[in-house]
Amino acid sequence: MRRQAEEMVRDKAALLPENIDVLSLEETRQMLHELRVHQIELELQNEELRIAQAELDIIRARYFDLYNLVPVGYFTISAEGLILEANLTAATLLGVVRGTLVKQPIFRFIHKEDQDIYYLHRKKHSQNPFGTLAGLSTG
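^ thats the sequence. predicted structure below, dont judge the formating
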């Protein structure tokens, strides 16, 4: 980042007087003021980014709890019907290793007599840009 910033300074240097000594005292003060204001802006942006990162960490932990630690099997399914993600409960209920579920067609895990129900459900919800969430339960 520093290298990129230095390149940007060199590019903008062309807009500044060749010799800083030709700047008046007022112009020098104004430039120093602008630099200080910019530094404070960057510090504020950095603080906002830290806060956003902390909020994301909280949301990520909550998502993990909601998705992975529930007693119901959950899948995130692509528009093509491929498993994008599955929680541990889903893998346990299906009796497979969790990692082997990813990129597998969900219909492989649906009883033949229930595949029509799934097809109609998927067709009904195909307009959802976020895919379809499917759940398995032990009951």
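The chain has a mean pLDDT of 84.
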